What we know:
The complex is a heterodimer. By secondary structure, chain A is an all-alpha fold. Chain A is about 80% helix and about 0% strand. Chain A has helices at about 5-15, 20-35, 40-50, 50-65, 70-80, 80-90, 100-105, 110-115, 125-150, 155-160, 165-180, 180-200, 205-220, 230-235. In chain A, helix 2 crosses helix 9, helix 3 (about 40-50) packs antiparallel against helix 9 and helix 12 (about 180-200) runs antiparallel to helix 13. Chain B is mostly helical. Chain B has a domain at about 50-100. Chain B starts with a helix and ends with a helix. The chains are: A mainly alpha, B mainly alpha. The interface between A and B is large, with 99 and 75 residues.
Amino acid sequence: MTKGQQYLAGFKEGLAVLFGFIPVGIAYAIVARQAGLTPIETVLMSATGFAGASQMMVAGMYAQGASVAAAIVATFILNLRHLIMSTCVFDRMKNAPLKLKLVAAFGITDESFAMFTTQGEKHSNVYFFLGLITATYSSWVVGTVIGVVASAFLPDMLSASMGIALYAMFLALLTPGVKQNLRLVILVALTAVLNALLSKIIAPSWSLIISTIACAMLGTFFVDLDGKEGESNAA
Amino acid sequence: MRLEVFLLIMGMALVTYIPRMLPAVFLHKLKFGPRFEKFLKLIPYTAMSALVFPGIFTVDPANWYIGVVGGVAAVLLAWNKLPLALTVLGSVLAVFLTYLIV
């Protein structure tokens, strides 16, 4: 595949996120507008930050009169998980030019990470990823604009139903990988239970990071992935 | 635009970009052993699991089964190799129908 074909393939794959980002964009737009942000400020935050959960949190904190510094620190903590996700993404495109990687870095989100790291070897390159994030980024900005414009008009039942979309996407990406690997199913279940328990005790953003790392470490001892991982285990 | 909001938005953009960018700059300089490579390959599974659970049960805070219906629909459709976008759409549809019926 040429670079252009990779980019297009990534773009197509990324479009799946549109259904997910519209409801999140609407939810964010409602919070941001209630917090007193203007429509332009609401959209600008999406266009420069590209981080739905943090944007929602920052808008909420702004509404409660938190300082700019406190909101920025909270964002940093909430986004630390991207450090892990970014490591996985760039591990798959080590030889790409730095300039392109710096652009790609802007597009690392839970969604693009999940879609990229579940691709096969064929799509493990920076061009596919750039196509992917072009689609996810546009979807996010469009989703926010729709949220600003249409939050008042969309029927409640429809926007409530669309709330499942991002969860559905993560589950859909998980399924093929775990389908024929019972130990991987056990690992996924373990992570779910640990995160459910931990998030009752500590902040969900930390719980997510800790359960992700701890369970992946645990998994290296008992999960066999297909292909060369299995061989290196035997050796 | 108010200065305070502008600073907030720019500061947010910066601290969001930093953790995303660091591995892009430094990763190729490091050489990982097979166990660490395996750890990195397992991260997508554990991360996605933590992104879904327990949040999916409170997608509708008043009705836990909404998340279950949508989740089961997504897994079944993906199991049968439907493309990603259609799987997501199918799950949304399943939840929509549940709201209509219940």
